C-alpha cells in the first residue's frame, strides 16, 4: 500500500465511528482531509452532524462538501475529534503542527469527549523528536524567544511559507520549528514551553489521543480505546 492508501484506510476506519447527531472536531492536514472527504460523502447521503474545523483550510473544504460547520458560540462540547499527526509514540503522545494548525487543533481536542488520531505507518515512532517540534509564538516575541528556546537544547528555525516569507498561522502568529532530536521527557518539555511568555502553543499533545488508527500495508491497526 502507498502512504496515500494507508492514510485513506485510516481515515475510512475513523469515519466509521461517526454517528448521526454528533458534533465533530475536524482536523487539519492531508490525512484529516481524506476523513473530511469521506464525511462529506456520508453527509450527502443524509448524515446530520456539525463540524468544528481546526483551520481555515478545513473550514473551506467542509463547507464545499456541504458539511455544516459552527464555532464555540454555537457549540460547547465536541463528541469526537478526528485529526492527523506528525508523530505518535507508544504512549499515544503526539507531535502535531506540521501544517501549522496545532493551536486550534489543541483547543478543539481539549474540548472533545474523544480524540481519534489517524496516520500512515511512518508516523509511528518509538521516541518523539525526529520531527521538528512546532512552537507557535506571538510575532513580537519571536526574536527574543529564539535564543531562549535554543537554550532548551534544540536548533530553532522560524518557519517560512512557500514564497520564502515568514509563515503566519490562522491566528496571525509565527511558528518556530525546534529540532530537539529525540525528546526524552516530553511532559517536562511541554510544561517548560507552556510557561514561556510569548509562546502561544506547542505541538506536543500529551493525554489527548484516546485512539490511534494507523494505516498499514495490511489494513489498519488500532491502538488504545476501540
Ligand atoms: C496540522 C497537523 C497535521 O495533523 C499534521 O501535520 C499531519 O498532517 P498530514 O496528515 O498532512 O501528514 O498537525 O497542524
TrEMBL record:
Q: What GO molecular-function term can you cite, just one? A: ribose-5-phosphate isomerase activity
Instruction: Please list the coiled coil stretches.
Output: none
Gene3D superfamilies from the entry? 3.30.70.260, 3.40.50.1360
User: What domain of life?
Assistant: Bacteria
Q: Which Pfam families match?
A: Rib_5-P_isom_A (PF06026)
Which residues are annotated as active site? 105
EC number of the protein: 5.3.1.6
Presence of keyword Isomerase: yes
Q: Which UniProt keywords apply?
A: Isomerase
Identify the residues that bind substrate: 83-86, 96-99, 123
Q: Does the keyword Protease apply?
A: no
Cite the InterPro entries for this sequence: NagB/RpiA_transferase-like, Ribose-5P_isomerase, Ribose5P_isomerase_typA_subgr, Ribose5P_isomerase_type_A
| Catalytic activity reported | aldehydo-D-ribose 5-phosphate = D-ribulose 5-phosphate
The pathway entry for this protein reads as: Carbohydrate degradation; pentose phosphate pathway; D-ribose 5-phosphate from D-ribulose 5-phosphate (non-oxidative stage): step 1/1
Entry-linked PROSITE patterns: PROKAR_LIPOPROTEIN
HAMAP family reported for this sequence: Rib_5P_isom_A
Q: Which NCBIfam families match?
A: PRK00702.1, rpiA
Against PANTHER family, the record matches this protein to: RIBOSE-5-PHOSPHATE ISOMERASE 3, CHLOROPLASTIC-RELATED
Q: Which family does it belong to?
A: Belongs to the ribose 5-phosphate isomerase family.
The UniProt subunit note reads as follows: Homodimer.
Function, as annotated: Catalyzes the reversible conversion of ribose-5-phosphate to ribulose 5-phosphate.
Please identify the protein, giving its name as recorded.
Answer: Ribose-5-phosphate isomerase A
Say which species the protein is native to.
Sneathiella marina
Amino acid at each position: 500500500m502507498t502512504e496515500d492508501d494507508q492514510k485513506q484506510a485510516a481515515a475510512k476506519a475513523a469515519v466509521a465511528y461517526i454517528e448521526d447527531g454528533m458534533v465533530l472536531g475536524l482536523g487539519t492536514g492531508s490525512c484529516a482531509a481524506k476523513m473530511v472527504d469521506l464525511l462529506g460523502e456520508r453527509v450527502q447521503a443524509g448524515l446530520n452532524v456539525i463540524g468544528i474545523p481546526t483551520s481555515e483550510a478545513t473550514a473551506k473544504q467542509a463547507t464545499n462538501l456541504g458539511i455544516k460547520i459552527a464555532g464555540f458560540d454555537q457549540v460547547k462540547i465536541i463528541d469526537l475529534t478526528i485529526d492527523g499527526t506528525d508523530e505518535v509514540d507508544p504512549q499515544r503522545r503526539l507531535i502535531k503542527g506540521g501544517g501549522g494548525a496545532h493551536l486550534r487543533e489543541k483547543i478543539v481536542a481539549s474540548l472533545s469527549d474523544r480524540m481519534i488520531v489517524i496516520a500512515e505507518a511512518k508516523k509511528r515512532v518509538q521516541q518523539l523528536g525526529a520531527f521538528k517540534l512546532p512552537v507557535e509564538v506571538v510575532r513580537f516575541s519571536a526574536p527574543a524567544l529564539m535564543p531562549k528556546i535554543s537554550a532548551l537544547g534544540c536548533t530553532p528555525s522560524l518557519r517560512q511559507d512557500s514564497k520564502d516569507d515568514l509563515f503566519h498561522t490562522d491566528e496571525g502568529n509565527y511558528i518556530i520549528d525546534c529540532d530537539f532530536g529525540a525528546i526524552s521527557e516530553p511532559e517536562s518539555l511541554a510544561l517548560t514551553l507552556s510557561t514561556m511568555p510569548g509562546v502561544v502553543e506547542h505541538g506536543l499533545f500529551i493525554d489527548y489521543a484516546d485512539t490511534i488508527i494507523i494505516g498499514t500495508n495490511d489494513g489498519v491497526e488500532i491502538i488504545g480505546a476501540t
